[in-house]
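Handover notes (outgoing to incoming on-call)

Open items:
1. Multifunctional fusion protein: sequence verified, structure written out, both below. Nothing else pending on this one.
2. Nothing else urgent.
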Amino acid sequence: MQNKGLIKFFAILFALVSIYQLSFTFVASKVKNDAKSFANGDSEKEVKYLDSIGKEKVFNLGFTNFTFNEVSDKQINKGLDLEGGINVILQISVKDILKGLSNNSKNPVFNKSLADATANQKGNQTYLDAFYDAFDANSKGTVKLASPDIFANRSLQGEGGVDFQMTDSEVKKVIARKVDESVESAFGVLRKRIDKFGVTQPNIQKLGESGRILVELPGAKDVDRIKNLLQSTAQLEFWETYKIDEIGNFLMAANESLKKTEIKTTEAKPVVKDSLSALLSDGKDSATASKGNNPLLDKIIAQGGGPVLGLFSPKDTAVVNGYLKRADIRILLSGEQRYAKFVWGIPTPIKDAKGKDVDAVELYALKGNRDNVPAMSGGVVTDAKDTFDQLGKPAVSMQMDGQGAKSWEELTGRAYTQKSNIAIVLDDVVYSAPGVSSGPISGGRSEISGAFDVTQTKDLANVLRAGKLPAAADIVQSEVVGPSLGQEAIDNGTNSAIIGLLIVSLWMMIYYGKAGWYANIALAVNLLFLFGILASLGAVLTLPGIAGIVLTMGTAVDANIIIYERAKEELRDGKSLEEAVKTSYSWRGAMSSITDANVTHILTGAVLFIFGSGPIKGFATTLLIGIVTSLFTSIFIARIFIDWNISKRNSLTFVTNFSKNIFTKFNFDFLGKKKITYIISTIIVIVSFSSLAINGLDEGVDFVGGRTFQVRFEKPIETEIVKAELAQVFDGSAEVKVFGNDNQLKITTKFKVQEAGSKADEEVNKLLFATLKKHFSADMTYEKFVNAYDGKNLGVLQASKVGPTVAEDIKTNAYWAVIGAMALVFLYLMISYRKWQYSLGAIAAVAHDVIFVLGVYSLCYKFMPFGMEIDQHFIAAILTVIGYSMNDTVIVFDRVREYLAGKTKGNFSEIVNQSINTTMSRTINTSLTMIVVLLIMFIFGGESIRGFIFAMLIGILVGTYSSLFIATPILVDTISKEDKDRVEKAHLDS
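Multifunctional fusion protein C-alpha cells:
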C-alpha cells in the first residue's frame, strides 16, 4: 500500500480530533446529570441551574477553557425521541398574509381563489402557487392581480410595490417577496418568544419556501402552555365596550327570535328568575324566562354586570357564536350597534348552583364600526413585563410609544366621561375590561389584569415584547415525548448497539480468524470516527439514528468480507500472501464491487436525506457518514494491520478450521431453477397485489393525517373497551392497539385534526383524559396525564399530530423518494456496467423486493403483535432495502462481468452459474451480518422502531433471494443472442 505513512498520520490525527470532539459530549452530559441531581425532579429548577452556570468554565484542557454554553454547542445533541420534549411544525398562514396585502379585498374572484387554493392545494405545492393557479382559473384573464381593489392598493404602492400597470407575472414577484418577508418576520417573532421561554438548546428553522417553521424544544414539558405560546398571534387591540343595559334588549329580542327555530316543543316549564331578564325588568319574573324555553338566555350560568353580558359554559360558546352570527339575529341590532362585535373572555372558575367549581367565560359586546377596526391597536406597545396589581394579583404592565400614549389618553378620557369600559383584547379574547375612574391616563402606561397566574403573565408579557405574528401560525405537525420514554429509547438503543457489536465481532473472529481481529479493530475505529463526525457537525442523534449506527456495524464489515473472500480465492489459486492481498485490494480484485455497492448505498441514502424529515433525516445522516467512515477504515485501517502482519512474515489465511471448507466446493444450478423461481416470484407478486387491493395497508398518520397518543396504564386494559369509550367522544374516530406491553396502548384519531389553533389540541387532550380517567387511580390529574416530567411512567408518554396538508406532502415525498432512488440506481448501474440489461435485472429484483415487503405488511398488519404502519419510518426502511438489495446484486454482477470478460470455460449459462457459486461466501456473509444486527435491533431496539426494523429484515432476506434468483436470470434472459454467441466463442477459443 503506497503512502502508508500518510494514511497512518491522517488516521491518528482524525482519531485525536474525534476524541476531542466527543469530549464535549461527555462533559456536557456530566454537567446535566449534576443539574438533575441538584433539581431533584424540578424541571424549572434544573433549567435555572444550567442557565446560571452557562458562562462558567466547566472544561479545562490545560491550554484553553470552555464554558458550559460553549460545551453544549459542541456536543452531540439528542433528538426528542431520546431527550424528551416538544417538536412542532408551524404553518404561517399565507392566506392571511395575502388578505393583508390586498387590504382585505372584497373582490369576488380574489376571495374565491383564496378558498379554492385552500381546498385544492396539492402535496408539496405551496399555498401561493395554489392561489395563483386558482386565480388564473377563476379570472380567465378578466381580472388582474394589479387591480386597484386587489394588490394595487394604497398600502402596496410606491417603490418596490405594485401599480395597476403591472402584469400578473410582475405582481407575483412582488407578492412572493412580501410573503417571504412576512414569514421571516414570523420567524423572528417566534425566535424571540422561544429565547424567553426557558428551555436549553431550543432549535428553530425555516423549512424551505413552504411558509413552515420547525420549532424543537428539548426538555420542554408543559404541552398546552407551549402550544398556546407558539400559536398566539399577539394581536393586541383596545376596544370600547357596550354595557349590559345597552345591549340587553337585543339579547332579549334575539332570544325571542330564536324560539321560532330552536324550540321544538311547547311543553310548560316552571318559571325561574333569569339574570338578564331580572336586570331588564327590575327583578320581576318574566313569562318569557321559563327555563328550557330560552335558547340563548338558558345558557347563561351566572349573572354579568357592567360590560359583561353574562357568563356561559365553555362548551356552549360555539352554539352561542352561531346564534349571534346569524343574519336574522344580527338584523335585530339597531343604529351603531349593528357593528357590534361579540367576543369571549378568558375562562374563569366560579361556583355553580350546587357550590361546585366550574369554568365559565364572560361574553362581551365591543363597539365595532364599518371597517371593523379597534379604537386603538396594540402595535404601539414598546415594552411589557409581568408584575402584580394593587391587590397583589398577577398582571402585565405595558408601556406605549409617544403616539400610543396620546391615543391612550384620548381613549381613557372618553371612557372616563362616558363611564364606559375599555376591553383589552388579545387574539380576539378579552383579558380584562376595566373602567376609568380617575380621569384620562397619560404617559402611555397601562395594565392588563384578570384571573391570571404567574406563569400566564410571564407568557403574556413574553409574546407582547416579542411582537405580534404577521399572520396566524397553526401547528400542522407536532410530537411530544416524555423524558422517561426517551430514556427507555436510549437504553434500548444502547443495548442493541452493544449486543450487535459483540455478535458481529465474534462472527468475524470465528469465520476469518486473525484477519477478523483486524476487521474488528477497523470497526472500532469506524465507530470512533462516526461519532466524532456527528459531534463536529452538531448533528442530532435520534433513535432511528442509533439504528443507522447499528446498521453501520453490518456495512462496516461488508468491505472487509468482500476483500477477504477475494484474498482467499487468490491464495487458493497459488499466489503468495502478499500477492493475494495486493490483488484483493485492487480494482480488478474487490474494489470495483465495493465501489459499486457503496455508491448505490450513498445514492439511496442521499435520496432519504433529501426527502426525509426529523428522525428519518437523522437516520440518513448516520447512514451516509457510516458508509464513508466504513470504507476508509475497511480499506485503509485493516490494510495497515494486514501489511504489518506480512512484514513480520506471520501466516494469514483468512480462514479458521470452522470456515475453511464452507462454500469451497459449492455448485448449484441457479439458472436451471429459474422457471421455478419465476413462478414462485410471480405468485408472490400476485398475492401481494391482491392483498394490497383487498386489505390495503395500515397507513399511519404521517400519510393520512391524525393524532396519536401512546398511553400507559397502571394495569392491562382491554382495547375494545377503550375504543368504544373514545369513539363516543371522538365522533367515532378512534383506533386502539396494544403497543408493546398489554398495559400500553396506541390511540389514533382524526378528531378535529383539521381545526387550527391550540384550543382544539387542548380540547382533544381534555376529552382523552376525561374518558380514560376512570382507568387510573384517583390521584391522576390532567396535568400529570398530559404533561411530561422526569420519572413519568403513566398517562400520555408520547403524542403526535400530523395535519392533512403535511400528510399529503409526506406521501408525495415518499412516492418521489422511492421512484427517484430506483431511477438513480438504474442510471448508475447502466453507466458502470455499460449494458442496460444489468440495470434491468437489478431494478426488477428491487421492485420484486419492495412489492414483497408491501405484501407482507398488507397481509400481516391486522394480527402482528407490533405496529406495521406505513409511515416515514417505513419509507426509510424501503429505501434502505433498495440499497442493500443492490449491494447483494452488485456483488454477483461484478463477478459475472469478471468471468464473462475472463477465460472461464463453458457456455454463457455455465459461466454465469460459476460466477454466482463463487460469490456465495461473500453474498451469505454480507447478508448474514446485516440480518444479525437487524434481529438484534428488532428484539432489543424498542417498540417504536420494531415495525421499521421488521421491514428492513424482510427486505434483506428477500433481497438476498432476488439477487440470486431474479436479477441474474433476468440479466441472462435479456442479453441478446449475438452477445451470448460472442462470449461463448471467445471462451471456447481461449
